[in-house]
Design brief:
four-stranded antiparallel beta sheet; Rossmann fold; Efflux ABC transporter, ATP-binding protein; 2 domains; alpha/beta; 10 helices; P-loop_NTPase; 14 strands
């Protein structure tokens, strides 16, 4: 993967050498929409959200559909005005026009001028940022190579002939055309095949290595677990937890057991989420492993495997939704 040259000199913000710089900072952010014929009904997609994202971090925002993730991103970008609360990007209030020169954004479902070719579209975006033509000629092929479109005849092919995955890739390229300090990505893995997802992860990690700050939404929790320094979970407009994976998932040992035969009602005392397939069973052990092993004979069960693992982000995410009655396994 080729490194991409810097287009502009970032304006450094004064900060102590040992101090962590909040690049994104919001406090009590709320958004209320009024609906209905008389505008007498309220929809509240964001409820007093507060968080900080620091320079150089890769920050993942998780949540079920309708949680308010896209509304939060659009509010941070100044596309949507907050009803209450305040926020800052790169030290400036939300909506500051000068800050937008240092921000890149990939929407969830990008829609571009479909009669333009990929090359022409990137030229158009570069002109909006007043990037010199000489820099454009160097920068655009680098970006097309970075997102895996260098061999797809992007110079001649119109965007209306692009697949969803190709549009996602050119969308990532336009988000980086101005060499931003802060990049917002709304579902960047959407529409990509497994190879495309891997390449997108590599791009995000390459941006992180350059010291960029990345703030993104995703439903692909396995990717978030690999990429992110910290994550937040947004549920029904509220941020219910924010932290690193170690802080959220903890270091508690989790045992997954698999066996055969036995009295299933007795086994469920040890394995509450017991799953059965004929005579076989498996699930997560709840209790002391030594006591469980001693109790196996009385339950007339045979243990096949016992694996020690850490709770995954997906398991933690589902657990948080279940605790709030949003998701049930029944």
């Amino acid at each position: 993967m080729k490194a991409v040259d810097n287009l502009q000199t970032a304006q450094p913000l004064s900060v102590g050498t040992t101090e962590r710089l909040p690049v994104v900072q919001i406090s009590g952010l709320q958004k209320v929409y009024r609906t209905g014929f008389w505008l007498n009904q309220k929809v509240v997609p964001l409820k007093s959200c507060s968080l900080s994202v620091f320079a150089g971090e890769t920050f993942g925002l998780l949540g079920p559909n309708g949680a308010g993730k896209t509304t939060l991103l659009k509010t941070l970008l100044g596309i949507v005005r907050p009803t209450a609360g305040r926020g800052f990007l790169l030290g400036q209030p939300l909506g500051d026009r000068a800050v937008k020169q240092q921000i890149g954004y990939l929407p969830e479902s990008p829609y571009f001028y479909d009669y333009l070719t990929g090359w022409e579209f990137l030229q158009f975006i570069a002109e909006l940022f007043q990037i010199p033509a000489a820099v454009q000629r160097r920068r655009i092929p680098q970006l097309l190579d970075l997102v895996g479109l260098a061999q797809s005849d992007a110079r001649k092919k119109q965007l209306r002939q692009y697949s969803k995955g190709m549009l996602q890739r050119v969308g990532m390229a336009q988000a980086l055309i101005n060499d931003p300090e802060l990049v917002f990505l709304d579902e960047p893995m959407s529409g990509l095949d497994p190879l495309g997802r891997f390449q997108m992860r590599e791009i995000i990690l390459a941006l992180k290595a350059q010291g960029k700050t990345i703030f993104f939404n995703s439903h692909v929790l396995a990717d978030v677990e690999v990429i992110c320094d910290r994550v937040a979970i947004l549920v029904q407009g509220e941020l219910i937890c924010v932290g690193s994976l170690d802080e959220l998932l903890g270091t508690t040992d989790i045992y997954h057991v698999k066996g055969k035969g036995g009295r299933f009602d007795a086994l469920q005392r040890w394995v509450p989420d017991l799953e059965q397939q004929g005579e076989s069973w498996y699930g997560q052990l709840c209790g002391d492993p030594q006591d469980f092993l001693m109790d196996l004979r009385s339950m007339e069960a045979r243990l096949i495997t016992m694996d020690l693992t850490r709770q995954t982000l997906e398991e933690f995410f589902v657990q948080q939704l279940r605790q709030r009655g949003i998701y049930s396994s029944q």
